[in-house]
Amino acid sequence: MALNNMIAEEKSSAIPRYPATAKKVIFLHMAGAPSQLELLDYKPLLKEMDGKPCPQSYLEGKKLAFAKGTPDMLGPQHTFINYGESGTIVSDRLPYFQSLIDEVTLIKSMHTDQFNHAPAQLMMHIGFARLGRPSIGYWMTYGFADKCRDVDKPMTALLKDLKTRGMLDDTLVVWGGEFGRTPLRENRGGKYGKWVGRDHSLGAFIMWMAGGGAQKGFSYGETDEVGYNVAENPVSIHDLQATMQHMMGFNHEKLTYYFQGRDYRLADVGGHVKKDLLLLS
Amino acid sequence: MTKKWMKGIAAGSILLSATLQGAVDFTKDVMPILEERCLKCHGHIKESGKVVDKGNLDITKPESIKEFLKAGHPGDSSFYNLVVSDDEDEYMPPKGDRLTDKQKKVIHDWIKQGASFDGYTKKEKGESLLQKLAKETPVPNAAAVAHFEQMGALVLPLAMKSPLLQINFKPLGSESNPEMTKRLVELKENLVWLNLSRAKINDASLSPVGELKKLTRLHLDNTAVTDAGLSSVASLSSLEYLNLYNTAVTDAGIAKLSSLKNLKKLFLWQSKVSAAGVEKLQKALPGAYIHFQTATMPKPTKQEDKNAPVKKK
To answer: A77, B245: Cβ pair inside 8 Å?
Structure first.
């Protein structure tokens, strides 16, 4: 229903408020939440703590999806190397992505308040952890009357192709999952299983953006010494959504639609545009 | 709004006890506070070129500020009283934190010392190219806009209420033709972004495009444009972005582009240019990013972690 209402009103708001730096958005949603601690958030201290019981200070006030009692800390499982002019530290698990690290903005300080996959994915896409509201893609089409395309290619090839053709300039590529992974090893039901894994983490996760007016070779935000929580410049999902809307030329506070008795926004009553993530024009 | 200001005058002075310490300079001491906390509503220039001056106050103009103060008398100046007021219906700034005591004192002392604007000149550099182009731009010619819309092109203002236009011919697909650019000249005051990517145009189609002196972005990629057509492009002095990928342009053609001093990005992948030709153009346009090859793989700059990672079995 929400969608039908939006399509009906599409024409009324087809003009952006600001000149858009991003005319197209490709959202590479990593459903399942990849581990930032194995990919882009290198923590030497966590390596030293590997196998030791998790200090209580980290567990206080934390709610875990599966882990019980006092699980052990789990060190980085892969090798990290600095890449590019920006010297960004990247894991060897991203052997192709490293080549374009100077094109992207890493947001190391994402956080969320949902720790089960489905509601956390909803939060990322519709700004609420419950069904019944339009997704970020529909907000953009509602505002823009343009069509999104499905692109199913490896992310590095995608970035390279866009860059070579001069399209990365006005195409925003966003990559990330719905939450992060804990610095401690998951002991489901109190026992370590056959596989080494990390539990769901709401406190910190990584996303990146490239093109469409985003900074290049730049990292924003920091996590604590073991990557469990945001230490500096937190970015909420609503902040990310507001920033993406800004890049598309929309004011996230003004782009509303009336549904079930009141006006709604994608980023609800929250969301601040993180101008530090944007290139100066 | 007027009422708000009037109330402010009556609100009296709260920090009169503040003592004077050293001369306060408008540009150095006062302006940074105003830029941070007041500019958004009082003097900000929108992309459309319109100035936001709520309550008729534009903090970038001394004559505007003077309307709200009495030199030497902070207590009689609404410019100061609204900043220190405790009345939430009137105090400024209305949102966010109040000014700090130190900031309030700077404004107080500056007025007390005579509210001099000596040495102040309005900054112009904050203006983007688009803001400059939007100035004194007439409303687009409705007949010309209708002509391109009926043709099937996408004609859109750059932003809400902006007289600047973007035209994208992509929706025409196979119906595009070399003649379709003819009436673009009628929109030369308004057109800043033009997309002719993959359109069935030729070099002659670009002569009307050469008249569009306000163009900042131009897509000519995947077209039959050659060196001859670039003579028209060479006169587009506002151009910042030019896409010529997958065209037959050569070194002789891109040499004509050395006059485009505002050019920031040029795409030449799959064209007929050589590394030597690109290097020559790069010397003429040192600030431009010229892309003509597939991106290469950068090498690691430093080994951060030589040891094998801890692996659990």
So the answer is: no
